[in-house]
Automatic annotation (TrEMBL):
<protein>
    <submittedName>
        <fullName>Isoquinoline 1-oxidoreductase subunit</fullName>
    </submittedName>
</protein>
<keyword id="KW-0732">Signal</keyword>
<feature type="signal peptide">
    <location>
        <begin position="1"/>
        <end position="19"/>
    </location>
</feature>
<dbReference type="InterPro" id="IPR036280">
    <property type="entry name" value="Multihaem_cyt_sf"/>
</dbReference>
Length: 196
């Protein structure tokens, strides 16, 4: 029994813990200072932005990571010139237009059309929320998007939405894309302030 307890403690200590809930914009109405409220809303959005469903495809360097523990992609892949993998080993060699369940175990191969890494300029693995926020607001680093286009991306883009329907073996992002969109709208409407 003594050998089992340390093994269980180690397993629990290395199991990632993610936010399971996501509050809506109304949860921040009590914050009277608009800048504080806006920054608090972004911190709530950060529960999604820092979840492995987002981070795995938003690396700062190298190729994608995978799984809830964000381990290096297997098989090893590189970003490639168009963020779509190397020539002859593009992302769509394995990733189709939808998730594919594996019959041997409760896992799946994720899929969506299109399936690609975020550009390097949009990588945020390892960054704090303030840095992610500043990056998202900067058209030089956010794919040339205005805040309104960022809202549309967060609220309606199918690849973003995949984070809540990631297939077997993956923890979905907290909340829903609809709620994430509402938070993005409230953040922008309150001044798009970044956490300190």
């Amino acid at each position: 029994m003594r050998r089992w307890i340390p093994a269980l403690a180690l397993a629990l200590a290395t199991t990632p813990v993610f936010a399971q809930d996501l509050s809506g914009p109304e949860a921040f109405e009590g914050i009277k200072d608009e800048k504080e409220r806006s920054a608090a809303i972004f911190e709530e959005m950060g529960k999604v932005l820092t979840h492995p469903r987002c981070l795995n495809c938003h690396p700062v360097t190298g190729g994608p990571t995978q799984g809830d523990d964000m381990h290096p992609h297997t098989p090893p892949v590189v970003r490639g010139e168009a963020d779509f993998g190397a020539a002859g080993m593009n992302c769509n060699v394995c990733h189709g237009t939808e998730n594919v369940a594996l019959t041997a175990n409760p896992r799946s191969i994720p899929g969506h059309e299109p399936w690609a890494l975020a550009p390097v300029s949009m990588g945020w693995q390892g960054l704090g929320l303030g840095a992610i926020c500043a990056q998202l607001k900067d058209p030089e680093r956010n794919g040339g998007r205005t805040l309104e286009q960022l809202y549309e991306h967060n609220a309606q883009d199918g690849l973003v939405g995949w984070g809540w329907d990631p297939g077997e073996g993956r923890t979905p992002a907290p909340g829903s894309q609809e709620l994430f969109g509402k938070l993005t709208r409230a953040w922008i409407d309150s001044g798009a302030a970044c956490p300190g």
